[in-house]
Amino acid sequence: MEKRVTFHERWLPYLLVAPQMIITLVFFFWPSGQAIYQSVLIEDAFGGNSKFVFLDNFIHLFNDDSYFASVRLTVVFSFLVATIGLAVSLLLAVMADRVIRGATAYKAFLVWPYAVAPAVAGVLWGFLFNPSVGIVAWMLQGIGIEFNYVTNGNQALTLVVIAAVWNQISYNFLFFLAGLQSIPKSLIEAAAIDGAGPGRRFWDIIFPLLSPTGFFLLVINIIYSFFGTFGVVDALTKGGPGQATNILVYKVYNDGFRGQDLGGSSAQSVILMIVVIALTFVQFRFIERRVHY
Amino acid sequence: MVENRPFLTVLSHLVVLLGVAIIAFPVWMTFVASTHSQQTMLQSPIPLLPGPYLFENYKQVLTEGYGRVGSTAVTMTLTNSLIMALGVALGKIAISIISAFAIVYFRFPGRMYIFWAIFVTLMLPVEVRIVPTYGVVANLGMLDSYGGLIIPLIASATATFLFRQFFLSVPDELTEAARVDGASPMRFFWDILLPMSRTSIAAMFVIQFIYGWNQYLWPLLITTKESYYTVVMTVSRQANVVDSVPAWNLLMAMAMLAMLPPVLVVVFMQRQFVRGLVETEK
């Protein structure tokens, strides 16, 4: 879309985009270029010399079992975060949409977790499940479950998933609720007159009409679980115990800043960049389609 | 309501109420923990109802900070968070609105390249390119400064697109009228476009304020002096002090203070918040 009426100035537009462009170039293109450049170098531990090794860092990465463990873990993790998050928020949105009285109040009670920082969310859930004082850990012990996320890898992953889902629920809820409210009431009424019960109406009418929203949210949730969950992981488990919660975005940080493996970390950055670009592309293709029909 | 099914209505209420209760539970426990003494918080099970130490705990973290030695008073970290959140939000809005103005209202060579250059930044969150971005900021000598905390985060494709979208919906007649009256482009921007963008700006502000306040990895990396620590990073840092049992009552008081400002912004500016969320995804 373009404007029909525009101004004619020679230098003013450049002046106006200059701040944005300078920041983008300095803090975005330059570092991204550096990441690509460093991904083909090996730097010695003292940071002095670096040697061009072409794709060695990538080959090394692809032969590294711990990298593939992290890839598998990230896939499982984002699958869990996305499906559980979407299912729970869809249930809440459908129920909140049904009730006329109190719907706005419920909305107010469900939107605020979005405002809690992921790192703080991690601390909150860590407190609830803390092996020595956590109230939920204590309850679980009462029914015979020993919950210790500090030593048990699967339990650590469970807890990170719970905290990540909690943090993202309000976002999903708001979009589902908006989607539900945009479905014409006449469709639902027509189906009801034809004798379709609430369950039938949900699966045959509401669910298909919500699928664009659902697909959009799926992509957003995958992106979120890939990159937005850094704070949750860092506050709760720091990637541990062992490698149990060392998802890709955390591994980039761990290898680069703790392990001082700049080449390996940059190679991982480059791979992650490709993943995000692919995901963003999928998202935009989809949005274009949604606009057209 | 299509038909009256009392049972389903009751069920809906119950499900939503249960959801609200579960979602609020961690915050309730955090609040409870922040109102007890340190001794109470050391033995399981911990109480489920608030205790009498509310003022003492909050007063201590606000004035002295967490722990006895070498800690930062939370008033200071809160101030830093506020500076960072306001800086990021206002900075993003300022540079995005003028670049959107340039892209929509002018035809100039290279316009599409600039548009795409901004568009690409949408794709790469700072977490992905963290090591080299740190390197750049270190080279520029911006570690341990408010500039380093704020400036690298204010390039924003989402805000630019939001304003572009809005400008495209502004009727051309207004521009024509302004031109006929001899108004310069900047005059048109200040007197007509900017006042019309008020709601978009408010929506953007809410979203970006939360984004800035909740930054974690970035301040963690580039601040080494305590005088630049933000509140979110100190909460997580203190929770993870190796080999020591956290003073849960103080830690949780700190966590409450870290959550309060963005949560209040969302609750009191709910309409702008929802608008901002929905519109940035268009």
Explain what the structure shows.
The complex is a heterodimer of chains A (293) and B (282). Chain A starts with 11 loop residues before the first helix and ends with a helix. A two-stranded antiparallel sheet of chain A has the order 1-2. In chain A, strand 1 and strand 2 form a beta hairpin. In chain A, helix 2 (56-62) crosses helix 12 (262-292) and helix 5 packs across helix 7 (153-181). By secondary structure, chain A is mainly alpha-helical. Chain A contains 12 helices and 2 strands. Chain B is an all-alpha fold and 282 residues long. Chain B has a domain at 75-229 and 260-278: MetI-like (MetI-like fold, Orthogonal Bundle). Chain B has helices at residues 6-33, 54-63, 74-105, 111-121, 130-139, 146-150, 157-168, 172-180, 185-196, 198-213, 217-222, 231-239, 248-268, 270-280. In chain B, helix 2 (54-63) packs across helix 13. The longest helix of chain B is centred in the first third of the chain and has 32 residues, at 74-105. The two termini of chain B are 30 Å apart. At the A-B interface, helix 1, helix 3, helix 4, helix 5 and helix 6 of A face helix 1, helix 3, helix 4, helix 5 and helix 7 of B.
Give the SSE layout:
The complex is a heterodimer of chains A (293) and B (282).
Chain A: H1 12-38, E1 41-43, E2 50-52, H2 56-62, H3 65-98, H4 103-111, H5 118-128, H6 135-142, H7 153-181, H8 185-193, H9 198-228, H10 230-236, H11 248-258, H12 262-292
Antiparallel strand pairs in A: 1-2
Helix pairs in contact in A: 1-12, 2-12, 3-7, 3-9, 5-7, 5-10, 7-9, 8-9, 9-12, 11-12
Chain B: H1 6-33, H2 54-63, H3 74-105, H4 111-121, H5 130-139, H6 146-150, H7 157-168, H8 172-180, H9 185-196, H10 198-213, H11 217-222, H12 231-239, H13 248-268, H14 270-280
Helix pairs in contact in B: 1-13, 2-13, 3-7, 3-10, 4-7, 10-14, 12-13, 13-14
Question: What is this structure, in a nutshell?
Answer:
The complex is a heterodimer of chains A (293) and B (282). Chain A contains 12 helices and 2 strands; from the N terminus they run H-E-E-H-H-H-H-H-H-H-H-H-H-H.
